[in-house]
Amino acid sequence: MSAVPLVSSVSSEPSVPFNGLQVQVDQTLPMPLQGGFSCEAGQLLALVGPSGAGKTSFLRMLAGLMRPQAGRVTVGDAVWCDTERGIFLPPSQRHVGMVFQQYALMPHLSALDNVALALLHLPRPQRLARAREWLERVRLSADQQLRRPAALSGGQQQRVAVARALAREPRLLLLDEPFSAVDQMNRQNLYPLLADLRKDIHIPMVLVTHDLAEARMLADTLVVMDGGQVLQQGSPAHLYRAPRNVRVADLVGVQNRFRGTWLGPAEGEPGWGWLAWTRSAGTVQPHADTPADADASDQVVRLKVRDKRRLDMGQQVAWVIQSDGLHLLHAPQDALVRLCARLTQLRNLGDLSLATLELEQPAGVPLQLTLAGPQRQGLAVGQRVCVGLDREWVHVMPTRSA
Predict the structure, then answer these.
(1) Range with the poorest average pLDDT among 15-24, 67-76, 82-91, 173-182
(2) For an engineered disulfide with 144, which of 130, 140, 159, 248 has Cβ 3.0 to 4.6 Å away?
(3) For 58-72, what is each residue's pLDDT tens digit?
(4) How far apart are CA 73 and CA 203, in angstroms?
């Protein structure tokens, strides 16, 4: 993409209560990019979508590397871009921290000097002290801090990149596929690190990733993009349960997607209506008083569902259902060992949630659970729960003595 001239200007707009990031863009050239989103300070927003969706272009615009045809970018009360007013701050005035896919570390410098490079506005002793402090926060040992990138693992190099991005205390953190070059085992160690750092960093953070599971695990908010357009923004749980359209449902990985016909309101039952679940999107005659059952041709199942009063009678529709709404009936009940614990962490991954428990007996021992369906509804961190352990699944192995 060709460079565009940068026009520096200082905003004099009054302060606003919102202290996060707000973005709006509308352009057709050199590539279509339309829509907007917002991210509160201390929150992580993930841009998700297929290749060519426009995720990286949004990141470039936020960093000041691309000027939109029409758009506005603000962080708190600072205006970084406002095309109507001729404002476009260059990268040097935006105070943005960037974490790249391939680390972008200086190969001839140690990890300590790589981080110190972001602090050239300070005297060298202060630069090194600040760099050492950040490397300790990302859990690199004193020995690792003195190594060059080639002598560090991929995960360690990414920790250096994160420390460098945060060392200047940026107002916005951008993460461009930060874990894609790291093996899966190292990724699992980097996820908790990012979660811990977020507790102390009260700035908006924007992540670009192709890994939907990673986005669900890390992000407070997802922004679904396709073809340069923002299709929907919301929490991972909300987007998975209520996608705006079929394309969003496809992009966020909703498995249960169906077609049907809207039959209209349920007579005498405000807030409820009838949906015909068809094998194909053919025409179905509306019968609002028909019970939920298959018709004589076994082609249609009529379901009484919530009526949001947004559909016309006879309108062709798509519909989805999350696995939380599907229940196995008459499951066998085996003798289980009862364990009680406190729920310390809960991560929503669409159809599944990952729960971390801390057992009461043996005291403090962590227990990991994968939950699906209604068993994960109503759970909250800090809650006391009890778990059934099936002895049939216990696998005992010998260990080697030293």
Answers:
(1) 15-24
(2) 140
(3) 999 999 999 999 999
(4) 15
Q: Please name the residues in contact with 318: beta carbons below 8 A apart, sequence gap of 6 or more.
A: 245, 246, 249, 257, 258, 259, 260
| Chain segment 289-314, per-residue pLDDT in tens | 333 444 434 456 788 888 888 888 98
Listed in order, strand segments (DSSP E) in 126-252 are: 172-176, 205-208, 221-226, 229-234
Task: Give the residue ranges of DSSP H helices in 235-289.
Answer: 236-241, 246-251
pLDDT tens, residue by residue, 229-279? 999 999 998 898 889 888 998 999 887 888 888 888 988 888 888 888 876
Q: Is there a contact between 75 and 62 (Cβ–Cβ < 8 Å)?
A: no
| Helix axis angle, 124-137 to 154-167, nearest 10° | 130
- Number of Cβ within 10 Å of residue 380's Cβ equals 8
As a whole number, mean pLDDT of residues 358-376 equals 82
Task: Report the DSSP pairing between strands 352-359 and 337-349.
Answer: antiparallel
Tokens of 86: 């001729």
132 Cβ contact partners less than 8 Å away, ≥ 6 residues apart: 112, 145
The enclosing H or E element of 338 equals: strand 337-349
Helix (H) or strand (E) holding 23: strand 21-27
Q: What is the spatial distance between Cα 229 and Cα 241, in angstroms, rounded to a whole number? A: 21
- Token pair recorded at residue 66: 């691309």
Q: Rounded distance, CA 114 to CA 245, Å?
A: 45
The DSSP code for 71 is E
C-beta atoms surrounding 84 within 10 Å: 8
- Cα separations in angstroms, 44 against 3, 174, 398: 29, 10, 43
Neighbours of 46 (CB within 10 A): 26
The single-letter DSSP state of residue 14 is P
d(CA 216, CA 353): 10
Q: In 3-state terms, what secondary structure has residue 269?
A: coil
Q: Can you tell me the distance from the alpha carbon of 63 to that of 56, in angstroms, rounded to the nearest whole number?
A: 10
Beta-bridge partners for 366: 358
Sheet containing 96-99, strands listed edge to edge, beginning at the edge strand earlier in sequence:
87-88, 78-82, 71-75, 21-27, 33-39, 229-234, 221-226, 44-48, 205-208, 172-176, 96-99
pTM metric for this prediction = 0.78
